[in-house]
Amino acid sequence: MEESKKQSLFVAQLKDTIEEKKKRIGRPVRYHITTMGCQMNARDSEKLSGILAEIGCEEIPTEDADILLFNTCTVRENANEKLYGHLGIVKHFKKLNPDMLIGICGCMMQEKDEVLRIQKKYRFVDLVFGTHNIWKFPELLYAVEAENQRVIDTAEERNGFRDHMPARRKIWFKSGVNIMYGCNNFCTYCIVPYVRGREQSRAAEDIVREVKALVEDGVKEVMLLGQNVNSYGKGLSNGETFASLLERVCAVEGLERVRFMTPHPKDLSDELIQVIKRNPKICRHIHLPLQSGSSKILQRMNRRYTKESYLSLVDKIHRELPEVGLTTDIIVGFPGETEEDFQDTLEVVSRAGYQAAFTFIYSKRSGTPAAEFEDQVPEDVVADRMQRLIALVQQFASKAADRDEGKVEPVLVEEVNPQRAGYVTGRLSNNLMVHFPGDESLIGQMVLVLLKESKGFYYMGERRD
Ligand code: 5AD
Ligand code: SF4
Question: What does the sequence similarity comment in the record state about its family (predicted)?
Fold first, then answer.
């Protein structure tokens, strides 16, 4: 609490600093945040945006801003390369606008080597902070803006929550809500436990309070966010579980939809399935990362489930919640993956009934145990497997997506269709998109739509209310 007061003082001072800067440059101080990676980062960016808006800056859609932040991801190698690509471009923006402040934050800045590289080779970067001290953003920004310092401030461990930060949502009718931070699972390929730290759950009362405030502010759909939401409540003393938290969130009046991301197959409880069953507000979409269909590879990944236990969980979900749309993440080419292991993955894909799958080529992250494994799979073998996997996923996904053709379903309208004049695009409870005739006034509304025609991974529809 003390800390959040201190940060409020910096916010107050920054208002003056920005006001002066506006006068000096004779126009508004513009900011832009480029967000890479997952919904956690997207939510963090909304918090950074909240602070920047509060101190009097204006958001612009392009990177030629006065304050430019990169909220980075480091889960795969190409995520890192993406940042360096951007930096090469914005260096020139800074030459044209010497007042420009360039900052980098997010998961990549929790990696010492990357921070050192920025510090030494990217001298035009003014501000670096990590995920553990994002709550200190006002103080760090003040040091750069008002005191002209170059600030590199990262913390090894989380030492404060970011919950006090005012968020500025990109979309007014839906919002992410952090329910926990960090991850204790240590899947052997994954850098997240090292950059996001140990699991820590927020108090249920605080989460419910945040959801209520969001609903008062017009939000209809919330997504509860955590690296492993089934672990919610471990470490809290009051016996709260993810299932009980979901029920409390569903009880918030005026809230129409609840989503969550991401559950871990090793501990998706029966209690959770029953809670979903009883609560129509919980969206019929479960993202259940498979990673591999081979029990041998799963063990080497430290996933703590097998092909068989995963498939029986999927059967249970389809049996108890037949309307659920199931999606997944799959990694191809994990060290030691043989053709036989890969066949196991294909088999799970053909049996699980996924409506969509995100497929990733295994990326060696230094610092993770798997990076030390000796039997890395050759690139050409991985590329071939990837092609075969994508073809199979597409074949099965369109089957899963077809099944609601002809039904009338509630849809939350998200945007005017950018490709087809006179159409809007909305999201079904199961997370599929539907395009139908409508106009801007429908954005943020829940409407009933007839799913006239399935197009494989989306629908064309028509309003029915
Ligand atoms: N290589 C490839 N994919 C990875 N993921 C996480 N770490 C790696 C890695 N080292 C994928 C997993 C996870 C998703 C968010 O990113 O599939 O579920
Ligand atoms: Fe990474 Fe595994 Fe934790 Fe997900 S559960 S963040 S894949 S370590």
Answer: Belongs to the methylthiotransferase family. MiaB subfamily.
Distance CA 33, CA 104 (A): 10
What value does the CA radius of gyration of the chain take, rounded to a whole number of Å? 23
Sign of CA dihedral 429, 432, 433, 436: negative
- 57 annotated ligand-binding residue: no
Q: What is the pLDDT of residues 34-50, one digit of tens each?
A: 999 999 999 999 999 99
Q: Is the pLDDT of residue 158 over 80?
A: no
pLDDT > 90? residue 113:
yes
How much is the pLDDT for 160? 67
Give 214's DSSP letter. Answer: H
Helix residue ranges, H only, 321-378: 339-352
100 lines ligand 2 (CB under 6 A): no
- Is 105 marked within a binding site? no
Question: Is there a cis peptide before residue 328, judged by omega within 30 degrees of 0?
Answer: no
190 lines ligand 1 (CB under 6 A): yes
Name the residue with the closest Cα to ligand 2, atom 5: 185
Taking a C-beta distance cutoff of 8 angstroms, is the pair 337, 377 a contact? Answer: yes
Q: Whose CA is nearest to atom 13 of ligand 1?
A: 329
CA of residue 215 to ligand 1 center, whole Å: 33
What does the DSSP assignment read for 276-294?
A: HHH-TTB-SEEE---B-S-
Among protein residues, the one with the nearest Cα to ligand 2's atom 1 is 190
pLDDT of residue 1: 57
pTM higher than 0.70? yes
